[in-house]
Amino acid sequence: MAKEDVKTEYQTVHSDIANLLGFFERQLGKQPKELHWGHVGNLRHVRDALIEILSFISGFEIDEIENTLLETRL
Predict the structure, then answer these.
(1) Of 54, 31, 34, nearest in space to 43 by CA
(2) What SS3 string covers the chain?
(3) Which residues have CB under 8 Å from 66's CB, separation 6+?
(4) pLDDT in the model for residue 5
């Protein structure tokens, strides 16, 4: 019984994360009518939080992730 509970909970949380990623994608598709530096700061905060989360779930160092992002900009 406990194994099924953990499996069900894992699938629920996994699905929640997938849905949240979809919400992020929709939010990134929106752009304010008049951009200002506050918008840049907000996105940087989100990016930093996502890097930290990716580091946590993947085991990659934050520096590795940031370097990969830099490489994708070249």
Answers:
(1) 31
(2) CHHHHHHHHHHHHHHHHHHHHHHHHHHHHCCCCCCCHHHHHHHHHHHHHHHHHHHHHHCCCHHHHHHHHHHHHC
(3) 51
(4) 92
Stated pTM of the model: 0.85
Residue that is written with structure tokens 């940087």 in the block = 44
* C-alpha 21 chain-centroid distance: 7
- Residues 52, 62: contact at Cβ < 8 Å? yes
Residue 38, both tokens: 């506050």
Res 52 pLDDT > 70: yes
> Band of the pLDDT at 40, cuts 50, 70, 90?
very high
| Contact (CB, 8 A) for 54 and 66 | no
**Domain range annotation of the chain:** 1-30, 35-74
